[in-house]
Amino acid sequence: MIKILFICHGNICRSPMAEFIMKDLVKKAGLEQEFMIDSRATSTEETGNPIHHGTMGIFKKYQIPCTGHRAQQMSRQDYETYDYLIGMDQSNIRNMTRIAGGDPEKKIYKLMEFTGSGRDVADPWYTGDFEATYRDVSEGCQALLEKLKGNLAR
User: Fold this and answer.
1) What tens digit of pLDDT does each residue of 65-88 get?
2) Any idea which residues carry the catalytic annotation?
3) Which of 21, 24, 100, 126 has its CA 20 to 30 A from that of 34?
């Protein structure tokens, strides 16, 4: 089983968007049994809060199922549990590495690395542009799934 943890600053916009987009892609590919997918925050600011209404609007628009999410912070134990810890921007990567106590197993990635660009996924909390974030997250998740499908075939 491949274990993926998506991480952003608050765990109410980008990382749950990635979590549920990836779960939807995996389900549509018939690979649900092959993956464990979740999301976390690097901060405690939103702990216990539900998904942001802007992200919920994206889920509704694109008919992406999502249930039961409450924001929670990444822990050092998450580094041991997950195979891929995927941040949305360079600030997330820096904070994830700090929380994990380093990245000796090279498990920490930025989502858009899988598309070949490596750019940051803009935080819609600040930009207000949930659609642009959806396009980036969707592109990143699709590229990640294609990479991982290759690993499953081995």
Assistant:
1) 999 999 999 999 999 999 999 999
2) 8, 14, 123
3) 100
Q: Which amino acid is at 112?
A: M
Distance CA 52, CA 75 (A): 22
Residue 111: is it exposed, middle or buried by C-beta count within 10 angstroms (0-12/13-18/19+)?
buried
Residues pairing with 108 in the sheet: 85
Angle of CA points 98, 34, 12, to nearest 5°:
45
What is the tens place of the pLDDT at every residue in 114-148?
A: 999 989 999 999 999 999 999 999 999 999 999 99
Q: How far is CA 104 from the centre of its chain?
A: 21
**What is the rounded distance in angstroms from the CA atom of residue 104 to the CA atom of residue 82?**
13
- Report in angstroms the alpha-carbon separations of 40 from 62, 130, 146, 150: 22, 19, 23, 26
